[in-house]
Specification:
- This is GTP-binding protein.
- Keywords: Chaperone, Hydrolase, Nucleotide-binding.
- Mean pLDDT is 77; it is low at 195-234 and 371-389.
- The chain is an alpha/beta fold and 389 residues long.
- The longest helix is centred in the middle third of the chain and has 14 residues, at 159-172.
- It folds into two domains: 5-234, 3-Layer(aba) Sandwich (Rossmann fold); 244-388, CobW-like, C-terminal domain (Hypothetical Protein Yjia, Chain: A,domain 2), CATH 3.30.1220.10.
- It has a seven-stranded parallel β-sheet with strand order 3-2-4-1-5-6-7, with helices on both faces. The chain has a five-stranded antiparallel β-sheet with strand order 8-12-9-10-11, with helices on one face.
- It has 16 helices and twelve strands.
- The protein is globular.
- Guanosine-5'-triphosphate is lined by residues 12, 14-20, 47, 96, 152-153, 155-156, 182-184, 272, 274, 291, 293, 298.
């Protein structure tokens, strides 16, 4: 039998930066063949669409959490499918609401001959960590099992906040290295051997044993958490049992002004929204990838990849939000295709462009730094006038 394929689990709360990190790993794989399992909460698998096309093989699991939709034999079937493509490593990106400890247990219980569990990486949103932890104390338990903690969104922390965060994480994940990261940019060698025949070893401080996990499961049951046969009851303590999702889709394009106003309004109870938007713009309109984490809204602009329908597809995740109001508000932003593109697209897009990330945001910052009025590349003369009003 050949070498076993390591399986690395990537977990972390909604919006922490797991998909961003996975894309970084894929882009810097440097010859390592990475097979990927992605899993979204909600029936539209946005994450699968956000993961780069360069992945060698991917299994995408839609609705529900990996920890609930699979049992061990399903998992073995999935590993068999992926193993056929002869990857050097399998990376499993759990949904932001998955129970990482149960996922670890499942991988450890796998009877698949060709795979081995290679560790749990927990991604933490450094900027929202205290708030997330206050609302979801179970995060502490998840961190306890981490083999590596990535303190992401380091750019949003000042030195004092960074020091406090790292001290807390070191306490919650004893023995696990805590690495700061910006946009998930970590050295892939932290997770797997450089391929194909690299000699680097995984510098994990500790490796969870099956005994540890069995102990954890027993403690869990002793607390009455897993008392019944019903899957729903068995998973009642999962993070995601307290969350709802809502899909918003439209084949008709959106009015950018109306949509910008809709997003500015804020949605009590919605923690996360992500997906793709098509605006009613002239020509072949770009794809705007929307990311809302807490109150932070951002867009990135790109073309529509071949094979992806240019339709607006969003998923909202939260607890106790007003789904009807959200659905109605969204519907009010759609325009009939037959109405054609919006007039004055430059002005109409101003409210969207304010939240654009990537190259355009850098251009905007550079223009601001040059301190020359009227040189912002994102603002047309008409827009400058509109703002002046
Ligand atoms: N400022 C900042 N933003 C980041 C960083 N890393 C990721 N983001 C942004 O955070 C948002 C969420 O990132 P994702 O990678 O989709 O997070 P996720 O953990 O996969 O989210 P779920 O799939 O919903 O659980 C996106 O808008 C990212 O661009 C970072 O280091 N700094």
């Amino acid at each position: 039998m050949g070498k076993r394929i390591p399986v690395v689990l990537v977990a972390g709360f909604l919006g922490a930066g797991k998909t961003t990190l996975l894309n970084h790993l894929l882009r810097h794989a440097d010859g390592t063949r990475i097979a990927v399992v992605v899993n979204d909460f909600g029936s539209v698998n946005i994450d699968a669409m956000l993961v780069s096309a360069q992945v060698d093989s991917m299994v995408s699991l839609g609705n529900g959490c990996l920890c609930c939709v699979l049992d061990t034999s399903d998992l073995d079937g999935m590993f068999s499918r992926l193993a056929r493509t002869k990857p050097d490593v399998i990376v499993v990106e759990a949904s932001g609401l998955a129970e990482p400890v149960e996922l670890v247990q499942m991988v450890l219980a796998s009877r698949h001959q060709r795979i081995r569990y290679a560790g749990l990486l927990m991604v933490v949103d450094g900027a929202h960590f205290a708030a997330t932890r206050a609302e979801h104390p179970e995060i502490d338990r998840h961190l306890h099992y981490a083999d590596l903690v990535v303190a992401n969104k380091d750019d949003l922390l000042d030195p004092a906040e960074r020091a406090a965060l790292h001290a807390t994480l070191a306490e919650l994940a004893p023995g696990a290295p805590v690495v700061p990261s910006l946009r998930g940019r970590i050295d892939p060698a932290l997770l797997f051997d450089a391929a194909p025949h690299g000699a680097r070893t995984v510098p994990r401080a500790r490796q969870l044993s099956f005994d540890d996990l069995l102990r954890d499961a027993a403690t869990h049951e002793a607390h009455g958490d897993h008392g019944t046969d019903a899957a729903d009851d068995a998973h009642a303590d999962h993070l995601h049992s307290a969350y709802d999702t809502l899909n918003l889709e439209s084949a008709e394009p959106l009015d950018p002004r109306a949509f910008a106003a809709f997003m500015e309004r804020g949605f009590p109870g919605v923690y996360r929204m992500k997906g793709f938007v098509r605006f009613a713009l002239p020509g072949r309109p770009d794809r705007y990838t929307l990311q809302l984490v807490g109150r932070h809204l951002s867009y990135t602009r790109s073309g529509w990849p071949r094979g992806q329908q240019p339709t607006t597809t969003l998923v909202a995740i939260g607890a106790g939000f007003d789904a009807a109001a959200l659905r109605d508000g969204f519907a009010a932003c759609t325009l009939a295709e037959s109405a054609g593109p919006v007039a004055d697209p430059d002005i109409a897009m101003a409210g969207i462009r304010r939240h654009l990330e990537g190259r355009e945001a850098e251009d905007r910052a550079a223009a601001r730094e040059s301190d020359t009025p009227g040189t912002d590349p994102d603002l047309s003369a008409a827009e400058v006038e509109a703002y002046a009003d």
